[in-house]
Amino acid sequence: MVGNRKNYLIRYVIATFLLLLMVYPFIYLVLNSFADWSQIDKKFIPSDFTLRSYEWLFAGGEAEIARPWIHAFFNSAIVSLGSTFLMMLIGVLAAFALSKLNFKGKNFINNFVMFHMFFPALILLIPTFLLIQNVGLYDTYLGLIIPKAVSLWAIFMYTNFFRAIPDTFIEAAKLDGANNLQILFKIILPMSKSITTVIFLFLFTERWTELLWDMIAVRSDEMLTLNVLISQMFGPYGGYPGPMYAASVLLTVPIIILFLFFSKKFQEGMQFTLK
Amino acid sequence: MRKTSNGMGWLFTSPYILFGIIFFVIPIVWSFFLAFTDWNLISPEFNFVGIDNFIEAITSQSVQSAFVNTYKFLIIYVPIVMALSLTVAMVVNGLPKFKGFFLIGFFLPYLSSGVVTSLIVNGILSYNGPLNTFLREKLSFNIDWLGTPIAAVLIVSIMIAWKFAGYYGLILFSGLSGIEKEIYEAAAIDGASRWQTFWKITIPMLYPALYTVLILAIGVSFGIFTEVYQLTGGGPDFATNTWQMEIFTNAFTNLQAGYSSAIALIAAVVTFVSIYIVRKLIELWGRRNGWE
């Protein structure tokens, strides 16, 4: 009995040690954003703290290269929410048809989705850029959002999940006179909260931390997303790592809070996706 | 039986189909066209140059480095991320309580941005950074981490493994928790060592989850961009150059859209064939051991 307890204690010690190691980069990030400027990137764990990096970030520093960080943050929010919303909406609609409706050409669309999903996407980069430029969406929010409006993975996950929902629910609703849209949004989606949470979190995270497309599709400073702004300031801010860390906290912490907020539903949803 | 509803089916899938035509079918056709031109992304003039772009690509040192490096990353990144995610899964599976707490904790790196990770790693590894300062003071040497080819490849691999370990760990954990306790108890009664139990029970029973994770990890190793772009710029001496870097640099820095499209086509074929072969090898490996 005592041996067992000791055994468990060792397991928790190992697990905690491993966890601290894995989240250490986040700890390093946050501590350095608050660290006294003489200690930034000098110690594994800084010991003197100041708010100077954040003041510098928001008010602009003596070097007068203040950048619209807050503006970039909102750009990121608009673009990520817009893209994620469209990815989920289009995904839900397509998945409903592919899982619950019978129609001519369904097999073709199913195969097309699979082909699209496994196709090496790197071919598409240059022509997509040209497309956006030619229709006047270059350097606009829509140019950032629309090319990222579909997630094949979301269609795939929703289709699998909807297939597992028994048709009897749909039959019953039909008898009550519900149409397909009502069935999807009033019956099926409310039954899919946990999978929706998982899909939302994955898609939002991916969009929020996107670099390549957000860098290509935009020219003016007012259109930069926070991730791209940090990326571009990497060199110029070389002498000011403190504000860089503060900006990185601004990028990283909201998404962690969002994730922790939904973590219970996320765990439920993962149970399904991992089956 | 469900009744046929042709109109509804097409109506519900129409947003996707529209997107698929505009952002998938048209770009594919377009990129084939571009690959045979010398277009520079800006001027309205261009010429057809036949297969010149492809010849230039195949003989280019930087394209060759991208080709080779993909397999370097595959060989280094995949084992690291497999070992790390399996460790995470086994450690969590061994806990009697608070499994959810630890799983969520290990998942957090997946939420990081490659740009921010690069900033942190750059800070820790710089000449005056904490790691080199420590090495100088205690062992009186230091390493130019990002200036040494093999170290740079290793560092990028570790960064990406760190990001994905918790996510893959979650998949493996779900596989592990599906293995019946009785099997382990029976093995213990038969006097099996831990090492034997691991190779004869855990790995075979976990094969489906391991397969999933392997396929995901291999996909990742063929699409590396952010960390390399931000941290090493493909260097030192092309050691960390990747297909994505090569396409991006040629198209948007050197403004050679035609040439870059040719590289993208080559990259797509190479990637597709490589992933297919590796996949078949893993399936063969599983079948030979009778794990499927």
TrEMBL record, chain A:
Keywords on this record?
A: Cell membrane, Membrane, Transmembrane, Transmembrane helix, Transport
Ranges where the ABC transmembrane type-1 domain occurs: 73-262
Please state the protein's primary subcellular location.
Answer: membrane
Would you say which domain of life the source belongs to? Bacteria
Membrane topology (UniProt): Multi-pass membrane protein
| Subcellular localization(s) per the UniProt record | Cell membrane
Positions of transmembrane segments: 12-31, 77-99, 111-132, 144-162, 183-204, 244-262
GO cellular component terms listed in the entry, alphabetical order: plasma membrane
SUPFAM superfamilies registered for this protein in UniProt: MetI-like (SSF161098)
As for family, the record states: Belongs to the binding-protein-dependent transport system permease family.
**Would you tell me the protein name for this molecule?**
ABC transmembrane type-1 domain-containing protein
Organism of origin:
Caldibacillus thermoamylovorans
Taxonomic lineage from the root: Bacteria, Bacillati, Bacillota, Bacilli, Bacillales
